[in-house]
Specification:
mainly alpha; about 130 residues; about 0% strand
């Protein structure tokens, strides 16, 4: 279980990093620097591929919804931090409220799925 959490967490970090590299590759300040833009684009592809690799590893070791929850939560938070640090972006209360509602919804889905799985396992033992 611990490895699946670790893999999902790493996947979210790489996904957020890939988004940052994608944004960096499209910035107008790099207009005359074709090689630098290509490098950022290549880094975006590499980090997104790495993110998917770790996500698949997480999926192999736990329920898909658990891996999705951890990856999504990590991605949202790291994206906000990277946006603030690298791009001087601000996030509003609406943004944080929306993210909180999404995460609460995912937690509710995970808890419901886990509850149903436990009930089914108990029913199988009784038979």
């Amino acid at each position: 279980m611990y490895d699946s959490v670790k893999f999902a967490f790493i996947s979210g970090i790489f996904a957020a990093t890939g988004s940052a590299f994608g944004k960096l590759s499209g910035l107008s300040i790099w207009e005359g620097y074709f090689l630098l833009r290509i490098s950022f684009f290549a880094l975006m592809l590499i980090t997104n591929t790495t993110s998917l690799t770790f996500f698949v590893k997480a999926l192999q070791q736990t329920a898909s919804i658990n891996a999705t929850l951890i990856t999504s939560a990590t991605n949202y938070i790291v994206t906000a931090l990277v946006g603030f640090i690298l791009f001087n972006e601000t996030t509003s209360l609406y943004w944080w409220s929306g993210i909180s509602l999404i995460l609460i919804g995912l937690v509710l889905i995970v808890s419901n799925t886990t509850e149903q799985r436990t009930t089914r396992n108990e029913e199988k033992k009784d038979i």
